[in-house]
Design goal:
Blueprint lengths: L4 E6 L2 E6 L9 H16 L4 E6 L22 H9 L4 E6 L2 E3 L1 H8 L2 E4 L4 E3 L13 H9 L1 H10 L3 E2 H7 L4 E2 L4 H14 L18 H11 L5 H14 L3 H16 L2 H15 L16 E5 L3 H12 L3 E5 L3 H20 L5 H11 E4 L10 E4 L5 H14 L5 E4 L6 H6 L7 E6 L8 E6 L5 H13 L3 E6 L6 H18 L3 H11 L5 H8 L1 H14 L10 H7 L12 E2 L8 E2 L1 H14 L8 H21 L6 H11 L9 H8 L1 H12 L10 H9 L3 H7 L2
Parallel strand pairs: 2-3, 3-4, 4-6, 5-7, 6-9, 10-11, 10-13, 11-12, 13-14, 14-15, 16-17
Antiparallel strand pairs: 1-2, 7-8, 15-16, 18-19
Helix pairs in contact: 1-2, 2-3, 4-5, 4-9, 5-9, 8-9, 9-10, 11-25, 12-13, 18-24, 19-24, 22-23, 24-27
The structure holds 3-hydroxybutanoyl-coenzyme A and 1,4-dihydronicotinamide adenine dinucleotide.
Family: In the N-terminal section; belongs to the enoyl-CoA hydratase/isomerase family. Belongs to the enoyl-CoA hydratase/isomerase family.
Catalytic activity: a (3S)-3-hydroxyacyl-CoA + NAD(+) = a 3-oxoacyl-CoA + NADH + H(+)
Protein name: 3-hydroxyacyl-CoA dehydrogenase NAD-binding domain-containing protein
Length: about 700
């Protein structure tokens, strides 16, 4: 008997207890143990089998680490069929999260009981695959096609109460899974309940699968797995037999298993978990984090304060004067109203958060006892230095002084205090109470326990925290500045901003770069360009001024109703602003550029090459620890399509050597912009990939 499954006899009942921490994933040992357990129960003359999980959960799914490796018997689909076909009564008792293959094992059992806190789901589509152990065939038979399509295409976790109503569970009882399971099995035996196999139920009634397929594909912005899963559910209704449906499910499952999207999504799954595990923080205790302060309650400060309040922290928000404080409070209340409307908080919680947890201030004395301060004032070094000098005077020893700066030098900010070891960058993204990314910017003198506290804050706020080093724009904005520039060059050379946006949404980005600029406010990029020009730009750099002209006309994007696009009140999205093309054409003429055609494919290739090349520089210089840190930054902060894994995963998939060749070709026209990253050249020379680098760096 495998150690991952413990076998025990309780009277007529054979009990199979899974013990494969942390989540009882259905790896080889577990599958072997379950199969052997069923066989032993049958040969020993037991009347029923109870399956449950020890530790924190029932089976949370197939073992994802086995994906892509040669299959080992018994496979999960065969195991599920074996469980279902047992002549004994098989019951599963669920707690924790019965997900993917876990729910499929449960659906192969003849009866299912769960504790009230249990959650069930088929989240395979998020990994680029579909339920491949009978889930798309059995779930529609117990819950109906509509509910099955919803669960399978969204991958959402369904609470025990809802699962009971859907027929996925037969009973919900509070208690220890072994105890409630044993009592239930005994009751079934006593009442002479029949063996009940889902696979023997009649095929469910079909729906209009073609229109569901189209709608799901559109919603997924190019993600294949949810749409393919629709076809698999279709087979549950239309295949001649249950077994034929299982065969169809397997074919579709294997297509997805062999896809690039599966590689991208699995990379995202593991990287998301690996990104905040820093070896140097092992054993380092974070500092206390009971109360925080935010300086400046504009767009970012209000969002950061909202996120902190929702996470249960007390927040003191400091503004310049009473009027600014009132405006800031209004912004925070507006954000919390949104949370109230979406049912995330109750009216009572709203009242407590706004009246008790939040304190508005205009005097620095109010900050004397806070554990951590996040500065979110104007992006101006002079103003930031004034604030940090003041914080240095009033904050208690050991308080952490953080800046939310987007681009400025955190070392320079730290140097204006007497305690640079307590200074760090905490770069949130807009809107800060919604966006998942947090760049933890470690300056030269930042103490390790301050870094640990940055990550602890990120975890508390449910962010994906990425360690970044100090440079202009850290990881994300530095790379953004480069691929955005590549887009601007293509505009000068003949592409339109609208074509570029379309090509990139076609690639899977939530929005194109010009629509994003309109959303963020064109004044932000304008300020950066002015700063860079004032600092002195390299004469070889191609600059453009049409966007400045747009700003000079008072057009800052969505907030002024006009930018690259024109926005009509009450309408979603905008329509191309014709003035933009006039400005661009005038600049091309002034520069003597004859515009040429770009294909969407060329646009994507060039944009991505610029992104990858800069990302490789960011990793090579140690600004990001590993390629996966860049991938997670782009995924969680910049709308990069998750199913492509991130820019460096994408680069590995398309091939680094080809990409480097392209960069060298582009360099023939603009050698200054297209300087190949030394790390990229090195990897190509060594025949290694970014993923190899991820594996080599802890
Ligand atoms: N296989 C292998 N490892 C897994 C795993 C799985 N299915 N699920 C989780 N893990 C690992 C995580 O990588 C993590 O490892 P680490 O500690 O080394 O980083 C550890 O288990 C704990 O996971 P979390 O940090 O995510 O723990 P949480 O408590 O936050 O979440 C969870 C638990 C909800 C179960 C979450 O881990 C999760 O969603 N897991 C994936 C579930 C899933 O997608 N199942 C379907 C798998 S595909 C399948 O079943 C195919 C079948 O249809 C044929
Ligand atoms: P904003 O202009 O909306 O808000 C700034 C706020 O700071 C204003 O409410 C202002 O009254 C207040 N303020 C200015 N000086 C102050 C002082 N001395 N003391 C107290 N309050 C003061 O600016 P926004 O967009 O919120 O940006 C703030 C910071 O966050 C900047 O450093 C910016 O680069 C950074 N950031 C901005 C992002 C964005 O998308 N807007 C994203 C990530 C970071």
């Amino acid at each position: 008997m495998s150690e991952a499954i413990r076998y025990e006899r309780v009277g007529d009942i054979a009990v199979l207890a899974a013990d494969n921490p942390p989540v009882n994933a259905l790896g080889l040992a577990v599958r072997q143990g379950l199969q052997a357990g069923i066989e032993r129960a049958e040969s020993e003359g037991a009347k029923a089998v109870l399956i449950y999980g020890t530790g924190r959960t029932y089976f949370a799914g197939a073992d994802i680490r086995e994906f892509g490796k040669p299959p080992q018997e018994p496979g999960l689909p065969d195991l599920c069929n074996r469980i279902e076909s047992s002549p004994l009564i098989v019951v599963s008792a669920l707690h924790g999260t019965a997900l993917g293959g876990g729910l499929e094992v449960a659906l192969s059992s003849h009866y299912r009981i769960a504790v009230p806190s249990a959650k069930v789901g088929l989240p395979e589509v998020h990994l680029g695959i579909l339920p491949g152990a009978g889930g798309t065939q059995r779930l529609p038979r117990v819950a109906g096609v509509e509910a099955a399509l919803d669960m399978i295409t969204t991958g959402r976790h369904v609470g025990a109460g809802e699962a009971l109503k859907l027929g996925v569970l037969d009973r919900v009882v509070d208690g220890d899974p072994r105890d409630i399971g044993l009592a239930y099995v005994q009751e079934l035996l006593d009442s002479g309940a029949p063996r009940r196999a889902v696979g023997e139920l009649p095929a469910p009634a079909p729906v209009d699968f073609d229109s569901v397929y189209d709608a799901v594909l559109k919603k997924g912005r190019g993600q294949q797995s949810p749409a393919t899963a629709v076809r698999s559910v279709q087979a549950a209704c239309e295949a001649a037999t249950f077994q034929d449906g299982i065969i169809r499910e397997r074919e579709l499952f294997m297509d997805l298993m062999n896809s690039d999207q599966r590689l991208g999504l699995i990379h995202a799954f593991f990287s998301e978990r690996a990104v905040s595990k820093l070896p140097e923080l092992k054993g380092v205790e974070p500092r206390p984090l009971a109360s925080i302060s935010v300086i400046g309650g504009g767009t970012m400060g209000a969002g950061i304060a909202t996120a902190a309040l929702l996470a249960g922290l007390n927040v003191t928000l400091l503004e310049m004067n009473d009027a600014a404080a009132a405006a800031a409070k209004g912004r925070i209340e507006g954000n919390l109203q949104g949370a109230l409307k979406r049912g995330k908080i109750s009216q009572a919680q709203f009242d407590t958060l706004t009246n008790q947890s939040l304190t508005m201030a205009t005097d620095y004395a109010a900050l004397s006892d806070v554990d951590l301060v996040v500065e979110a004032v104007f992006e101006d070094m002079g103003v930031k230095k004034q604030v940090f000098t003041k914080l240095d005077e009033v904050c208690k020893p050991g308080a952490i002084l953080a800046s939310n700066t987007s681009y400025l030098d955190v070392d320079e900010i730290a140097a204006c205090t007497s305690r640079p070891q307590d200074v760090i960058g905490l770069h949130f993204f807009s809107p800060a109470h919604v966006m998942k990314l947090l760049e933890v910017v470690v300056a030269e003198k930042t103490a390790l326990d301050v870094v640990a506290t940055g990550f602890a804050l990120g975890k508390l706020l449910k962010k994906i925290s990425v360690r970044a080093g100090v440079c202009d724009g850290f990881i994300g904005n530095r790379i953004l500045a480069t691929y955005r520039t590549a887009a601007d060059h293509m505009v000068l050379d003949g592409a339109s901003p609208f074509q570029i946006d379309k090509a990139l949404t076609g690639f899977g980005f939530a929005m194109g770069p010009y629509a994003v600029s309109d959303l963020a406010g064109l004044d932000i990029g304008w300020a950066v360009r002015k700063r860079k020009r004032a600092e002195g730009m390299d004469p070889r750099a191609r600059d453009s001024s049409y966007a400045d002209k747009l700003c000079e006309g008072g057009n800052f994007g969505q907030k002024t109703g006009k930018g690259y696009y024109v926005y009509e009140a009450g309408k979603r999205g905008g329509t191309p602003n014709p003035e933009v093309m006039q400005l661009i054409e005038a600049e091309r003429a002034a520069k003597g550029i004859t515009p040429r055609d770009f294909s969407d494919e060329e646009i994507v290739r060039k944009y991505m090459a610029a992104m990858v090349n800069e990302a490789a520089k960011v990793v090579g210089e140690g600004i990001a620890r590993r390629p996966l840190d860049v991938d997670m930054t782009l995924l969680f902060g910049y709308g990069f399509p998750r199913y492509r894994g991130g820019p460096l995963k994408w680069a590995d998939i398309v091939g680094l050597s080809d990409l480097l060749d392209d960069i060298k070709t582009y360099a023939q026209d603009d050698a200054y912009f297209w300087q190949p990253a030394p790390l990229l050249e090195q990897l190509v020379a060594d025949g290694r990939s970014f993923d190899d680098l991820n594996k080599e760096t802890a």
